[in-house]
C-alpha cells in the first residue's frame, strides 16, 4: 500500500494487532483451509450450524451461477437485448483482468460491491472474548520477540 502524498496520516497502535489477526487467519487458510474444512464438514453433514466449546457458526447457503458473457453477447446479435442491457448486467472478474491491465488501471474503472461471507462465527454467550484476545495478543508479541531475536 502506498499512501498518496499530502494525505493525512494518524498513528494507531491497534493496526498491528488487526493486521496480525488477519495474517493469522490467512495463514491458517493456506495451511489446510480451516474455513473451507469447516464449510465442507457442515455441508457433508447437511448442517447449517456448528459449534465448539466457545464458538457458534452458521453456514449461509447461497446458490450461485454464472452466464458465459459470449452467450449473452449473442443475444445482442440476435436482437433480443440491447448493448445497454448487456452492459447493465455484465460484471468482470478483476483477477483475470490483471493479465491485460495493471492494478491502478483496474482500480480506476472498478466499482465496489458487497459480497456476503458464506460462514459467520461468533463467541457463545458468556465467553470472555477480551481474555481470548489478550491471550492471542500475548502470543503474537512473544512470536514477534522471538523473530527479532533470531
Write the layout of secondary structure elements.
Blueprint: H1 14-30, H2 34-44, E1 49-51, E2 55-59, H3 69-77, H4 83-89, H5 94-97, H6 103-109, E3 119-123, H7 129-149
Antiparallel strand pairs: 1-2, 2-3
Oligomer: single chain
Helix fraction? 40-55%
Q: Over the alpha carbons, how many angstroms does the gyration radius reach? A: 22 Å
Instruction: List SSEs in N-to-C order.
Output: HHEEHHHHEH
What composes the largest sheet? 3 strands, antiparallel
Number of helices: 7
Uncertain spans: none
Instruction: Describe the global form.
Output: flat
How are the strands of the largest sheet arranged?
1-2-3
How much of the residues is beta strand, in percent?
5-15%
Amino acid at each position: 500500500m502506498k499512501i498518496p502524498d499530502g494525505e493525512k496520516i494518524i498513528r494507531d497502535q491497534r493496526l498491528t494487532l488487526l493486521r496480525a489477526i488477519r495474517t493469522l487467519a490467512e495463514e491458517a487458510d493456506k495451511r489446510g483451509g480451516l474455513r473451507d474444512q469447516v464449510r465442507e464438514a457442515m455441508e457433508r453433514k447437511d448442517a447449517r450450524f456448528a459449534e465448539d466449546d466457545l464458538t457458534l457458526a452458521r453456514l449461509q447457503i447461497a446458490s450461485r451461477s454464472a452466464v458465459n458473457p459470449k452467450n449473452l453477447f449473442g443475444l445482442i446479435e440476435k436482437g433480443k437485448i440491447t448493448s445497454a442491457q448487456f452492459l447493465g448486467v455484465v460484471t468482470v472478474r478483476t483477477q483475470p483482468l490483471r493479465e491485460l491491465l495493471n492494478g491502478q488501471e483496474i482500480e480506476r474503472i472498478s466499482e465496489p460491491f458487497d459480497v456476503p461471507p458464506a460462514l459467520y462465527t461468533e463467541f457463545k454467550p458468556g465467553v470472555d472474548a477480551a481474555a481470548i484476545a489478550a491471550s492471542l495478543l500475548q502470543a503474537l508479541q512473544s512470536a514477534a520477540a522471538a523473530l527479532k531475536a533470531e
